[in-house]
Each structure stands twice: as C-alpha cells, then as structure tokens.
C-alpha cells in the first residue's frame, strides 16, 4: 500500500549542513596546522642559523687572535730592524772615523773593533811618526793605550796598538759634561 | 514557549561546539606560545647576526692592517726569515 505519490529521497549521514561544517572546520584546522608547522620549521631554521653564526664567530675570533699575534711579531721585527740599522750606521761612522785617524805614512794591515776597544795592526816608518800622528789622537779617544813594536826586514816597524775605553771613566766624563751644561 | 530542535541539529551544534573548543584550545595552548618562542628566537638570531657582522668588520680591518704591515715591511720580514751566513 502506498502512502505517497513521490519516491522517498535517500537519507545520508552527511547532510549539506554537516558537509558545510566539516569543510569550514577542516579549512580552519588545516590553516592552524600549517601555521604550527611553519613556526616549528622556522624555529628549527633559526636554531641552525644560530649554531652556524656561533661557529663562524668562534672561527673569526681565532682568526683575529692569530692575525694580532702576527701583527705584534711584525712590529717587533720592525723595531729590531731599526735597532740593527742604527747600530750599523754607528758602526759605519766609527769605521770611517777610524780610517780618517790613520795618517798616510802609516799603513794598517788589520783592525779589530771591540765592544769597548780597538786593536790596530800595521806598519810605521818609525816610532816618532806613530807616536805623533797616530798615538796622540788615539790617546784622546781611548783611556788605555798599549803599543808593541816589532822591526821588519826593511827597517820599518810593525806595530800592534791595543786601545780600551774605561766605561766608568766614560760615565764620569759624561756626568761632568752634563753638569757643565 | 517550546523550542523545537531536531536531534540532527543538536548533533550538529554539539559537534561544532566541540570543534570550536578544540580550535580555541589549540590556538591558545600551542600556537600562541610557539609564536612567542618564534619571535624570541628571531630577535636572538638578529642579535647574533649583528654581533657576527661586527666581528667580520673587525676581522676585515685587522686583515687589512696585517697586509699593509706585510707589504710595507716586506724586506725586513724576508731578511729576518733568511738565515745569516757569515
């Protein structure tokens, strides 16, 4: 027996309202989850970047320390070279002065520069030439002067002159000159 | 006054309330703290980047100074590195 003229419509559990509700909430949940994943990923990237920056900073610190050591070493080398250069100039001047001291009639065969003295080896025609022309200027410079003569076959004399500066006397002289000034 | 709500509508309403509560809880308990952490990490990373940049600048200036010293005193460095043959 039929009670209706139309055919019964099919009933489903997913009604249009439920579908609408599910679609709305699924979109919302998807967006929330996406935001959460974005935050997690970004935080992971931040931590990785931070580690990388820390390691780079440590590397730079070591590099800077090494370069500073190199810089100080070069500065010390420059100072040393300046000192050596000054000593060389002083030595050059003293050698030039020494050769200016020696008169033309006396021939030097060897000269040894000591820290506080000078040893000269050479040939002189006679003692007087040596005493007047070389020993006098040497005495004015050095505090102690010793000379030995040896005759050669041609009648000239071979001499060894050892001259020393007394450092205590030199200090006294320097003090006196300072007082006068 | 009698309110007529069908059983289906009650189910629908309860489900939507449940989902809404879930969304709110998820947002307040998970997303917002995570967002704060993200902002703090970003600020910390920015500080580290700034510090790293400062170190890089200092490294560059030190390197430049070293290179200038090396080029200016090349002869001294070479002569002191070479062994002296008397």
Structural topology:
The complex is a heterodimer of chains A (181) and B (86).
Chain A: H1 16-101, E1 107-113, E2 117-124, H2 127-141, E3 144-151, E4 157-164, H3 167-180
Antiparallel strand pairs in A: 1-2, 2-4, 3-4
Chain B: H1 7-72, H2 74-81
Describe the protein in words:
The complex is a heterodimer of chains A (181) and B (86). Chain A is 64% helix and 17% strand. Chain A folds into two domains: 21-101; 104-180, no CATH class. Chain A has three helices and four strands; from the N terminus they run αββαββα. Chain A has helices at residues 16-101, 127-141, 167-180, and strands at residues 107-113, 117-124, 144-151, 157-164. Chain B has 86 residues and is mainly alpha-helical. Chain B has one domain. Chain B contains two helices and no strands. Chain B is rod-shaped. The interface between A and B is large, with 36 and 37 residues.
**Proportion of β residues of chain B?**
under 5%
| Largest beta sheet: strand ordering of chain A | 1-2-4-3
Rounded mean pLDDT of chain B is 90
The secondary-structure element order of chain B is HH
Which outline of chain A best applies?
rod-shaped
Largest interface: A-B, 36 and 37 residues
Principal-axes shape call of chain B: rod-shaped
| Helix proportion range of chain A | 55-70%
Approximately what portion of the residues of chain A adopt beta-strand conformation? 15-25%
Decide which structural class fits the backbone of chain B.
Answer: mainly alpha
> How many discrete structural domains of chain A?
2
Largest sheet properties of chain A = 4 strands, antiparallel
The overall pLDDT average of chain A reads: 87
Number of strands of chain A: 4
Assembly status = heterodimer
Radius of gyration of chain A: 51 Å
């Amino acid at each position: 027996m039929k009670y209706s003229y139309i055919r019964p419509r099919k009933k489903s559990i997913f009604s249009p309202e439920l579908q609408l509700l599910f679609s709305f909430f699924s979109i919302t949940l998807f967006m929330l989850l996406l935001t959460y994943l974005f935050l997690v990923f970004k935080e992971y990237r931040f931590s990785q970047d931070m580690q990388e920056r820390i390691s780079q900073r440590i590397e730079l610190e070591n590099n800077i320390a090494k370069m500073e050591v190199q810089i100080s070493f070069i500065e010390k080398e420059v100072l040393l070279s300046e000192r050596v250069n000054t000593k060389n100039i002083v030595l050059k001047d003293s050698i030039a002065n020494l050769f200016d001291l020696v008169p033309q009639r006396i021939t030097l065969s060897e000269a040894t520069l000591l820290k506080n003295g000078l040893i000269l080896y050479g040939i002189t025609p006679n003692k007087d030439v040596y005493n007047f022309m070389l020993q006098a200027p040497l005495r004015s410079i050095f505090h102690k002067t010793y000379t030995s003569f040896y005759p050669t076959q041609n009648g000239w004399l071979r001499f060894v002159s050892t001259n020393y500066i007394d450092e205590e006397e030199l200090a006294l002289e320097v003090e006196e000159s300072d007082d006068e000034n | 006054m009698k309110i007529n709500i069908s059983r289906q509508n009650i189910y629908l309403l309860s489900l939507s309330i449940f989902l809404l509560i879930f969304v709110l809880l998820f947002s307040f308990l998970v997303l917002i703290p995570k967002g704060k952490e993200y902002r703090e990490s970003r600020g910390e990373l920015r500080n580290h980047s700034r510090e790293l940049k400062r170190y890089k600048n200092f490294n560059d200036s030190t390197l430049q100074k070293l290179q200038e010293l090396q080029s200016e005193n090349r002869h001294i460095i070479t002569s002191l590195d070479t062994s002296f043959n008397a």
